[in-house]
């Protein structure tokens, strides 16, 4: 279980997070929705140690994460699939995936996990020799998720996995997110496509200018009139 309590983050004189509290129970898909600049990515980046918190607490299975190094946080079983995919364009698909396991020493298990990623993403297996920069946007997103899975995370943080992808590819990505969760990985998902995110989420939070303004099950928020108006309108995907 990931538990965030009263988390404050400020940088460049801006209060990015203003005392947010949320929980990500084991085995669930939790989504954080909100407009651009609401603080969604800052939340993920603070969990992984990329951004320093001013105050508050982030506990993972009862252990405080704030102040730990990024490597230590990854070794605790937390991985991130970042916004904008961030694959290494000059390396092959296979090389990118292996980099996801760079902290691991269990070679036999790494080979098994590579097969697991290839089962989830058959397209990557077909293209394991191909340089990542030549893949389509959807394939690069699959690679970013696959690379995060190679660290064998218990908790996968996903930052805007559907951004810039064609609608059919978005359907694929969300099916795979649900499958990864079914196979035992807890997921904290940040997503502009609130409609898709709420449909697969067990729990959901609405973040507005650094404050959580609403929470509930995915179904409850999907049916909420305020959420519909703000995030599920015709132009909101």
Read across the widest sheet, the strand sequence of neighbours is: 6-7-8-3-9-10
Give the termini distance in whole angstroms. 30 Å
User: Quick one: how many beta strands?
Assistant: 10
Could you tell me the mean pLDDT?
92
Range of strand content: 25-35%
Q: State Rg.
A: 17 Å
Task: Determine the number of helices (DSSP H or I, runs of at least 4 residues).
Answer: 10
Largest sheet: 6 strands, mixed
The helicity comes to: 25-40%
What is the 3D shape?
globular
Write the H/E string, N to C.
EEEHEEHEHHHHEHEHEEHH
Helix and strand content put the structural class at alpha/beta
Low-confidence stretches: none
Fold and architecture overview:
The chain is built from ten helices and ten strands. With 237 residues, the protein is of the alpha/beta class. A hairpin with a 2-residue loop joins β1 and β2. α3 runs parallel beside α6. The chain is globular and about 45 Å long.
